[in-house]
Amino acid sequence: MEFKDYYEVMGLARDATQDEIKRAYRKLARKYHPDVSDDADAEARFKEVGEAYEALKDPEKRAAYDQLGANWKEGQDFRPPPGWDEGFEFSGDGAGGPSGEQFSDFFETLFRQGQARGDGHTGHREFHMHGEDRRARISVDLRDSYTGATRSITLHAPEFTEDGRIVTRDRTLHVKIPKGIRDGQQIRLTGQGGPGIGKGKTGDLFLEVELRPGNRYRVDDIDVYLNLPVAPWEAALGATVTVPLLSGNVDLKIPAGSNQGSKLRLKGKGIPAKQPGNLYVVLDVTLPPADSDEAKALYEKMSKEMAFDPRASL
């Protein structure tokens, strides 16, 4: 069985619009109509053009035909690849084209299926395909993972116009952010994906979450790290400070003799889950500026009275 390149038959590119397909058919049908053309093969060409138009004018048939890909050549020996029409459902009946004409074996193999009816005709396959699932990436505040939230997001969605061209339109969705959502997880919005073909259901939209932790937070799976500024005397002498966490304020005891980068664990204060993560407070010892005479005098007194050499271990 020979492959039929319907786009080549009609002199069209594979991304031709439906209007371009219609104009090409009208032009070629007039050219090869047996009552008009003197070409010896006019009748065969007229039928070939009619078959190509029958396949491409219907978005459902065209979508199914396009599943075969663009690597096949006109006249090449053809057998439908296994599972080429996977995901399609078929319904209805009737045979032949609009006027009952008989098309090639290639056309019949692709677009006719079914059980023979009492009059010997086979059922006409109308295509119903589930819409394409789509994906997008969204940023979510770390705070929303702790509390859950409903947020409005705007996506740039490609759509087909009536003439078959692709345009990009913005659409706004109200999305429920589940409590405990983690970086890399997905939120599924049923029925918000690509439109189905025929009676096929609309696809789903999967939103991949990227947590936006903020300046002082860092996230590692379900554990959260917070860089906490502390004064030198708080680190050296020890102190109890109030830390404003995303889950609420907590009084944190800083042990005496703490150093820059010391980590203090707050169990269960990380990303909420059945087994919640931990929150690690990383101490950031911050020096007060020497921006006044008094501050400068204090630093000078420390340099003279404290036997401290930060490079003694080098």
Task: Explain the layout of strands and helices.
Layout: H1 6-9, H2 18-32, H3 42-56, H4 59-66, E1 88-91, H5 105-111, E2 126-129, E3 134-141, H6 142-147, E4 149-160, E5 166-177, E6 186-189, E7 205-212, E8 217-220, E9 223-230, H7 232-237, E10 239-245, E11 248-254, E12 263-266, E13 279-285, H8 293-305
Parallel strand pairs: 3-7, 9-13
Antiparallel strand pairs: 1-2, 4-5, 6-7, 8-9, 10-11, 12-13
Helix pairs in contact: 2-3
Count of DSSP helices?
Answer: 8
**Sequence of strands across the biggest β-sheet:** 8-9-13-12
Largest sheet: 4 strands, mixed
Structural class: alpha+beta
CATH topology of the largest domain: Helix Hairpins
CATH architecture level-2 label of the largest domain: Orthogonal Bundle
Number of strands: 13
The number of distinct structural domains comes to 3
- The proportion of residues in beta strands is 25-35%
Kindly report how far apart the N and C termini lie: 82 Å
Task: List the helices and strands in order.
Answer: HHHHEHEEHEEEEEEHEEEEH
Ranges with pLDDT <50 over ≥5 residues? 86-100, 113-124
Helical percentage: 10-25%
What's the gyration radius in Å?
Answer: 35 Å
> CATH class of the largest domain, please?
Mainly Alpha
Sum up the overall morphology in one term. rod-shaped
Average pLDDT, rounded to a whole number, is 82
The name of the CATH superfamily of the largest domain reads: DnaJ domain
